[in-house]
Amino acid sequence: MDKYIDFIKKRKLLFLGIGLIFIISILCIISSLLFRKTTFKIENEVIKENNTNYNVIINYPVFNNKKVNKKINNIIESEAKDFKEKVDNKSSSNELTINYNYTVKDNIYSVQIRTYSYTGINNDYYNKEEMIYINSDNKELMISDLVNDEIYKVIESKCYDYLVNNKEEYNLYEEDKLKDILSNVKDLVLLSFSENELFVIIPPYKVGNYEKDINIKIDYQELKDYVNSEYIKIEINNEVEDVYSSDNKIRDKKFFEGKKLLAITFDDGPNYKVTNGLLDELEKRNARVSFFLVGDRAEKQGELVKKMYDKGHSIGSHSYDHKRLTKLKDEQLDIEINTTNQILKDIIGEDIKYLRPPYGSYDKNLLNKINMSFILWNVDTEDWQSRDTQKVCDSIVSHAQDGNIILLHDLYQTSVDGALCAIDILEKEDFAFVSLDEMVEYKNIDIKTNTAYRYFK
Q: DSSP readout, 339-391?
């Protein structure tokens, strides 16, 4: 009888154990599904279309939110359709560019979608902008979730004061007309939340004959009563410490004697989610690179640009918003180049001497107009197309030669991972990874303005 009772107890324990394992397994599966659903992702996708009558290039973000992705796709499809209907078949200068920029504050991503097009020989320019807010749980938010309507009184006052004090720079309307326009400021501006300040974005041609965004910064200390603290955290009198400041722009040449030098370059950034991690990994490897930054993105991620510079990487311009420079009028060219140079100088405290023209497109006329050193490349990894870490790595390794300039884009995690993979391999083969400033210094090159460089031998 006792043996039978023991058998029953053991069988109960066995079934209990099996039941517990089953329950735990189910919970793990549910947890995994929930985690996968809420894991934040922002990827960059590219569409390029070229023919004899027009060029199309579209950079757009992809999230783990089907509703947001559908909204973005609808914007793209609508703009592309409208553009193609307006294309002048007698002109080869038709161009559509859709790009995006984003800032991050307390895990809130402010994503700005910008459309620019030029059609026909009549110089028909078109601009449109839209802002999307999404948090790290992939939940889309409305601006009304983040701020209350009282904030627009502060914004109206700040915008008016700023515009009146900078009237000539932006070719603005008269003050009475500005007042009238700004009285409807809620429907006029876009708000982008960066780490240390709010960017108030006035789209092109809204307050005068100025074809770029006007970005007006407002300190969060002035807005603490108007933001939703559930999403936007403001520390009263918070002092931001400059923890990256250093004076090691050019490392001692003796460490690179006998080494083959490579200049890895990254275009189109900064992209906070990818670039910030890249900087930390480069530091671990004692490797330096060069960044060709889009002015609009750099302006809204100044802390990250300063970190790049203070860690010894070279900073160059990639224009304000990635237009094909050879197709622009002089006044447009001035904005693309000089505005970006001033933005970058204000951040890093140094004049900008390197320019990489978007698409690598330049001609003799452009070269003579811009008093900068044009930095092209002789190794194109085509990282934007493959999105494959191993292919990027293999491309860099197989084309590694002393003095080469390698083209990458820090919009993509696969590009960063591929570059780090190549660095780890090539360091064992006596290659060193240097910034452009270091490259020209170590090779004793008298780098000139109005000149294009594809490599440094």
A: IHHHHHHHHHSS---EE--GGG---HHHHHHS-SEEE--SEE--HHHH--HHH
pLDDT digits (tens, 9 = 90+) for 109-137: 999 999 988 887 666 778 889 999 999 88
Q: What torsion, rounded to 10 degrees, do the Cα atoms 17, 18, 22, 25 define?
A: 60
The structure's pTM equals 0.75
Tokens of 30: 């549910």
Under 8 Å between Cβ of 266 and 290: yes
Q: Residues with Cβ < 8 Å from 337, sequence gap 6 or more?
A: 317, 319, 320, 325, 355, 370, 372
Q: Is the pLDDT of residue 4 over 50?
A: no
Residue 42's nearest CA partner among 73, 79, 71, 68 is 68
Torsion angle defined by CA atoms of residues 212, 415, 351 and 343, in that order, rounded to the nearest 10 degrees: 30
Please report, as a single letter, which amino acid is at residue 383.
Answer: D
Tens of pLDDT along 227-265?
998 898 887 554 434 433 445 688 888 888 889 999 999
Q: Which two tokens stand for residue 325?
A: 């420079």
Pick the closest to residue 236 from 223, 249, 226, 246 (CA basis): 223
Closest CA to 83 of 75, 258, 160: 75
In degrees, to the nearest 5, what angle opens at C-alpha 453 toward C-alphas 295 and 100? 25
8 Å CB contact between 264 and 288: no
Query: Rounded to whole angstroms, how far apart are CA atoms 262 and 310?
Result: 20
Q: Are the C-beta atoms of 391 and 415 separated by less than 8 Å?
A: no
